[in-house]
Design goal:
eight-stranded mixed β-barrel; TIM Barrel; elongated; binds magnesium ion; binds ligand C2E; 15 helices; 22% strand; 395 residues; alpha/beta; single chain; Rossmann fold; 2 domains
Length: 395
């Protein structure tokens, strides 16, 4: 390794801070200590690799330091420690993330130094590897040009039956093949597309490509369902159900083989037209999924009023459910709620064996995530499926 990893220890109890810093020094970190409000303000701007923050400061509490770090746009890797209830530490973690900080995790006292060491290390590798491309934002003219040049790609991510492990569907996920930046994720252009109104053309173009591909798969004997994301902004276009039904029919894809995933995090200004459109889509035979379930403002209201057939639990719940009792309770109750309402329940963001075991124990219906397969180009699906089936002994 090159430069030693620098860590700022923020704790108003000087003795405790020295203690902690001393332990970190023996582990090979370079440490600095901030005990007073002034120290914190002066030191934060000097760019440490990591900050270990004691939440329970009395003069200026840790929450204020988090706010200050957010204002300073600190890119340090933050570890929160405290003599507190797990829920308070988790809330502080969430707050720090919401303020744009890079959070490695939180630890209750007494501190387990091997865990702290790993959190600090992880911060270093992530800073180096993860940031590429994240900040690229595509301009409206660029997106238009890309659409004209046919640079919109669709990748497909498998969905699996949790009980039988059978492959059932793929979700179409848009990618932009940018001339200089390479393949870009929706985070680089989706918000702009929604603000500029290009989202309608983009969604239709993804829907068309996905239908054409699905019809090729079906013709070749590969039975599967296709899930497509539909921006809630399209739910003001009263002709949408007819347009989508026509497209599906033209491509010979049965409507009940199509799942339209609607992001839940919307505050719709025209709930009546949304209800009109969603109801007609259901009447025409499409499946409707409430995507990112649990992250929106009107989750329960929507569940009650809109004719959904599927609930897709947001990946943030799945990610935390195995290490956080409260989140697990939310996942468990959501699955039960979904089933009571007669919905199919899908978990997304399954990254590890433990995630899979959990949703399987909780009787979730379908699962999707990197643990099963990453999104891939259409031609990679058949070989992946062969491999999957042979692992199941069904090759
Ligand atoms: P989504 O519909 O919730 O899609 C799931 C996202 O999670 C995808 O990100 C997928 O690549 C990612 N993902 C899947 N498995 C895992 C996992 O195990 N771990 C983690 N960390 N992530 C996982 P992606 O492709 O970047 O898409 C982000 C969002 O953009 C989508 O979230 C969807 O809301 C939107 N989107 C994607 N394609 C389209 C589209 O064609 N039209 C519209 N309107 N929105 C789209
Ligand atoms: Mg989706
Ligand atoms: Mg989602």
């Amino acid at each position: 390794m090159g430069m030693p990893h620098s860590v700022l220890v923020v704790d108003e109890d000087l003795e405790q801070a020295r203690d902690l810093a001393g332990r970190l020094e023996t582990m090979g970190f370079e440490t600095f200590i901030a005990c007073s409000d002034d120290d914190v303000h002066d030191l934060l701007s000097s760019g440490f690799d990591s900050v270990v923050l004691d939440l329970m400061m009395t003069r200026e509490d840790g929450i204020q330091v988090i706010r200050h770090m957010g204002q300073e746009r600190s890119d340090a890797n933050l570890v929160i420690v405290g003599d507190a209830d797990r829920r308070i530490l988790s809330a502080a973690e969430r707050l720090a993330r919401a303020r744009g900080l890079r959070v490695a995790g939180s630890l209750s006292k007494p501190i387990d130094f091997s865990v702290l060491g790993r959190m600090l290390e992880r911060g270093v590798t992530r800073a180096g590897a993860g940031s590429r491309g994240i900040n690229v934002q595509v301009a409206q003219t660029e997106l238009l040009q890309c659409m004209a040049d046919g640079c919109i790609d669709v990748t497909y991510q498998p969905k699996i039956d949790v009980r039988t492990l059978e492959f059932i569907a793929v979700e179409a996920l848009v990618r932009l093949n940018h001339p200089t930046h390479g393949q870009l994720l929706p985070a680089a252009f989706l918000a702009m597309a929604e603000e500029s109104g290009l989202i309608s053309r983009l969604t239709r173009s993804v829907f068309l490509k996905a239908l054409a591909q699905t019809s090729r798969w079906l013709e070749s004997g590969l039975a599967l369902q296709i899930a497509v994301n539909v921006s809630p902004l399209l739910l003001t276009d009263l002709d949408l159900p007819e347009a989508f039904a026509d497209l599906a029919d033209k491509h010979n894809v049965a409507r009940d083989n199509i799942v339209l995933e609607i992001t839940e995090s919307w505050i719709n200004e025209e709930p009546v037209s949304a209800l009109d459109i969603l109801t007609r889509l259901r009447v025409k035979g499409f499946n409707l999924s409430i995507d990112d379930f649990g992250t929106g403002y009107s989750t329960m209201l929507q569940l009650n009023e809109m004719p959904y057939s599927e609930m897709k639990l947001d990946q943030s719940f799945i990610r935390n459910a195995t290490r956080d009792r409260e989140t697990r309770a939310i996942v468990e109750s959501s699955i039960e709620l979904g089933h009571k309402l007669g919905l199919k329940v899908v978990a997304e963001g399954i990254e590890k064996q433990e995630d899979w075991d959990l949703i399987s124990d909780l009787h979730c219906d379908e699962g999707q995530g990197f643990f099963i397969a990453r999104p891939m180009l259409a031609e990679k699906i058949p070989p992946w499926l062969n491999h999957w089936n042979s692992c199941l002994g069904r090759g």
